[in-house]
Design goal:
The complex is a heterodimer. Chain A is an alpha+beta fold. Chain A is built from 5 helices and 5 strands. Chain A has a 4-stranded antiparallel sheet with strand order 3-4-2-5. Chain B has a 4-stranded antiparallel sheet with strand order 3-4-2-5. The chains are: A alpha+beta, B alpha+beta. Strand 1 of chain A pairs antiparallel with strand 1 of chain B, so a sheet runs across the interface.
Chain lengths: 151, 151
């Protein structure tokens, strides 16, 4: 963990909204010189606070209209195959994220599909056939808001 | 509608969002000018929503990440709106999602440590209106998080 001050957090607040904003423009907003902003961004990247950037796309406009979260429990007899399950599930292109969780389920998957029939295809052919997959619970995403967090 | 060239641009750009337009154009076998024009169009039509910096909350000292799956008391017609309005105000809430399924709402909450989590949970989450039930999933590891859409 690194120490961050108010200026670092203000820079982060700007970058989480627009990662392509130049250090010159950020400097003008914050009353800092371009090199000063650049050095701070460099440090935040070097310390791993800024992991990279993400291109945000509107999935509906790309014909991907359905987003489903799956809670997956490993079958009791599948416990030995955790690694092969993790590898296989991460390789499915429709699976956008895989999180290992503690609680009611073992894994939480975010799955994208064109529509409900397409989702059913992914679920049956790809997810249900995974080595060690047991009980699955599906929740269809209706709305999603991302917030910028305590910066 | 998107054509194959647009899809190629989006695929390449998703894979390496840090690229400049010139680099992207080169990878897509386009001139910088035509790549630029297509990007402009993808932005104005709302396919590209923007670029966001990916923040590593652990590096900022937020080591605890919990998914709270919440069922609301739907006998009150305003339950969803009341709940969401209040939930948005909690700074430690990073994501707010609504679902069709067994769970109504999911909040992603981060905290510095378990003591801080307990404090957030007791003082800010439990006081949110219309909660009927809460289930918690504690995040252990993220195996895939690039959120790259299969275009």
């Amino acid at each position: 963990m690194i120490e961050t001050d108010e200026i670092d957090r203000r820079i982060l607040r700007i970058l989480v909204r627009d990662a392509r904003k130049s250090s010159k423009a950020i400097g003008e907003d914050l009353g800092l010189s371009q090199p000063a902003v650049w050095r701070r961004i460099r440090r935040l990247k070097d310390c791993g606070v800024i992991r990279g950037q993400r291109l945000c796309l509107k999935s509906e406009k790309l014909g991907l209209g359905v987003m489903v979260f799956l809670g997956v429990k490993l079958a009791a007899k599948g416990r030995g195959s955790i690694e092969s399950f993790e590898r296989a599930v991460s390789a499915i292109p429709e699976v956008l994220s895989v999180e290992h969780v503690l609680g009611l389920y073992d894994y939480r998957l975010k799955v994208v599909a064109r529509d409900i029939p397409d989702f059913e295809r992914v679920l049956r052919r790809r997810i249900m056939t995974l080595p060690g997959a047991g009980q699955v619970e599906a929740n269809v995403l209706l709305s999603e808001e991302r917030k910028y967090g305590p910066l | 509608m998107l054509d194959d060239v647009d899809r190629r641009i989006l695929r390449q750009f998703q894979a390496a969002p840090e690229m400049s337009v010139a680099q992207l154009a080169e990878r897509c076998f386009l001139t910088t000018a035509s790549c630029w024009r297509r990007l402009e169009k993808l932005e104005s039509s709302g396919v590209i929503l923007g670029h966001e910096a990916v923040v590593d909350w652990q590096a900022l000292g937020f080591g605890v990440e919990v998914s709270l799956r919440i069922t609301l008391d739907k006998t009150q017609s305003s339950a969803f709106d009341d709940f969401l309005t209040k939930a948005r105000d909690v700074p430690e809430v990073l994501e707010v999602q609504t679902f069709l399924g067994r769970v109504d709402v999911r909040l992603l909450v981060i905290a510095r440590d378990m003591a801080h989590y307990q404090d957030v949970y007791r003082s800010q989450i439990l006081s949110l209106p219309h909660i009927a039930d809460i289930e918690a999933l504690m995040h252990i590891a993220r195996l895939k998080s690039d959120e790259v859409l299969p275009i």
